Amino acid sequence: MSAVIQFSEAGRQSGDRPLRIALAGNPNCGKTTVFNAYTGARQHVGNYPGVTVDRKEGPVRHGQENVTLVDLPGTYSLTAYSQEEIVARAELASGNVQAVINVVDASALERNLLLTVQMLEMGLPVVLACNMMDEARKAGIHIDIDRLSHMLGIPVVSTVARNGEGLKEAMSEAVRLAKAGERHVLEVNYGADVNEGIMAMQAIIEREKLLPKYAARWIAVKLMEGDPELRQELRAANATAAQEMEGICRRVADHIRTAHNVSMESHITDARYGFIRGLLRDGVIRQDAGKDRLALSDKLDKVLTNAFFGPLIMLVVLYAVFQITIEIGAYPQGWVEDACGALGELFAGIIPEGDLQSLVVDGIIGGVGGVLSFAPLIVIMFALIAFMEDSGYMARIAYMMDRVFRAFGLHGASVMPYVISGGIAGGCAIPGAMATRTLRSPKEKLATLLTLPYMSCGAKLPVFLLLAAAFFGSQAPTVMVLIMLSGWVFALLVARLLRSTIIRGEATPFVMELPPYRLPTLFSVLMHCWERTWMYVKKAGTVILAISIIIWAGLTYPKLSDEEAAAFDARIEALNAQREALPEGDAARAALEEQVTRLEEEKGAAELAHSFAGRLGKLIEPVTAPAGFEWRTDIALLAGIAAKEAVVSTLGTAYSLGDVDPEDATPLESLLQATPGWSKATALSLMLFVLLYSPCFVSLVVIQREAGGWRWLFFSLFFNTALAYVVAVAAYQIGLVVWN
Ligand code: GDP
Ligand code: MG
């Protein structure tokens, strides 16, 4: 069934160049876990498709050998349809890969081997890593490894990626294959008619020496399958030969269609499955009676994805996530706030009063501290979200959303980009936008890209958490769930609008995959949680720090003229002198004290109003007044276009600068509650505005790149801000009526 070919350029040891070994496999077979185990990297391990679209590389040292390990995106096939398939296929066909470790889920061998067969047809040296053997054993599935290896003619190793079992052996085999440089082309039997066509084409390919970097038989099979990429490549190489071969393909395909009433593509897939079924017969797989892991998943799914209970349970789960986050997070958040307060006091004591003190205490500690105080909440929320992801529940949420999506002109595969962008809380639109590459239809991709930014990304969460806790008290978790859901509602509505106006077009079919439920490892949950928290903290220490300093400067300069400042100071001093003259406890003394405070406030307000940012804010204020935003909020929102975390940090700086008594560093939450003009209606309006308005700067750039046009950047910037404005004004006006 297989022929040996010695490729001239492949597999040859070239000095001390590292061996290039690829990891390939279906989504969710544990490939990333294997990659991390080999390279010590901490790549995102996601329990759903769409996480790894780009290939990732990492160096591995195996004995005396240097290996470059390439993690390919998960694919079921190599037909070059989706972005993942194109990326994986390009790497495998490049001729640079010297061996492949094919990770397969031992409990789903039949489906997983489809990819294996295609790689063997390409002539790639493959080691089969039968992964998740622990689960297979638990489910009572026995695999005769030696027999499978014998039947396939390739090394097969039983592995458990989670604890490293078998990984060394798999790498040894791969290194051995890579150094041997032999390539066997697997010949699947496609039936007499197709085989004949393939042979005829193979003869032409060999005669004309077409595309010598590929095995001739593989080219022929791919042409039969109707592979557009390869057809292009051939046409470019030799137009006449290509035409001749396309003629053969058409003839055979017509014959298959009339004789068997199937398309060529499904005929070929059927033949591959036939090959696999034949392979797995005769005791390669044995299943104990009465033991079945999938049965448990199926039972759980009956309830968790039930049309009625499913969404209900989902809402309860989301509510619980926020409830736990807010309840438990309040304690460590208080500690961080206290620590920032103490730090502020400390610096206020060390640094003499003046600009430098104000920069450190109000600008840096007030700004960055405000963002950092949310880090504990972020840790807790991310841990819960990571648990949902790793257990497989997140995929169920996506599955349920998928039903809704079609009605709005989006693709089922759009769900994951939304979830990654923060659909369930705490993602980021940047990887979300990159995940849209899994969408085949450019129109569906565009609609997804443009509506992604309405999700509640990790940077918006502090704004929501702050305002929900400050103005809604015990209803905060409910408010959080509602805000999150509003993001979805607006995304779907806008997508519908776009799909029926500027990006009209057909919907493409899609099957959503449900991985089995798994109890996540503590390590994996902690790792996810750490990754995201570290990103958050790092951003606070760099980007947000820089923005805080700029905002502080904008709010501090230009200063009042000397005369103006002196006038205030003279009045304050006069009042103070009067006060000193009166005895302690006198009523008149207390009244004077109050006057001094008011005057100091007035001076602070005058200073802010005179500053550059103050003037800018005041300029915009009339426009945003119907939404309930005062000028300080406007400044924060402008800063939020640079990075959404800057909304909280700017509010922190603006309000602590205006705070008369910086010494006792009040938390932002209390400052806002105490500021006249702030109410539930303002909070709601601001939350919705932040949810919907322009994406942050980096997201805009990524959207521009993925959508392939500047106009989509401007669309996101202006359309989203306009939408946010309309929604915020409506929310504020309704809120004023309802809560008064
Ligand atoms: P990928 O989609 O192929 O990259 O798969 P991942 O590496 O993201 O793994 C998916 C899930 O399977 C994660 O929750 C892993 O912890 C889990 N997993 C990976 N390998 C094994 C294994 O050998 N045994 C068990 N029980 N779970 C595994
Ligand atoms: Mg992966």
Structure description:
The protein has 740 residues and is of the alpha/beta class. Among the domains are: 2-186, 3-Layer(aba) Sandwich (Rossmann fold), CATH 3.40.50; 192-261, no CATH class. It is 65% helix and 7% strand. It is built from 32 helices and 10 strands. Strands 3-4-2-5-6-8 form a 6-stranded mixed sheet, sandwiched between helices. Strands 1-9 form a two-stranded antiparallel sheet. A two-stranded antiparallel sheet has the order 7-10. Helix 3 (109-122) links the parallel strand 5 (99-105) and strand 6 (126-131). Helix 13 crosses helix 21 (476-500), helix 21 crosses helix 30 and helix 24 runs antiparallel to helix 25 (587-610). Guanosine-5'-diphosphate (GDP) binds next to helix 1 and helix 4.
Number of helices: 32
CATH architecture of the domain at 2-186: 3-Layer(aba) Sandwich
How much strand? 5-15%
Uncertain residue ranges: 1-14, 46-52
Mean pLDDT: 85
For the terminal residues, how far apart are their CA atoms?
81 Å
* Radius of gyration based on Cα positions: 32 Å
**Envelope shape:** elongated
Short note summarizing the structure:
The chain has 740 residues and is α/β, with parallel strands linked by helices. It has 32 helices and ten strands. The strands form three sheets. It has a six-stranded mixed sheet with strand order 3-4-2-5-6-8, with helices on both faces.
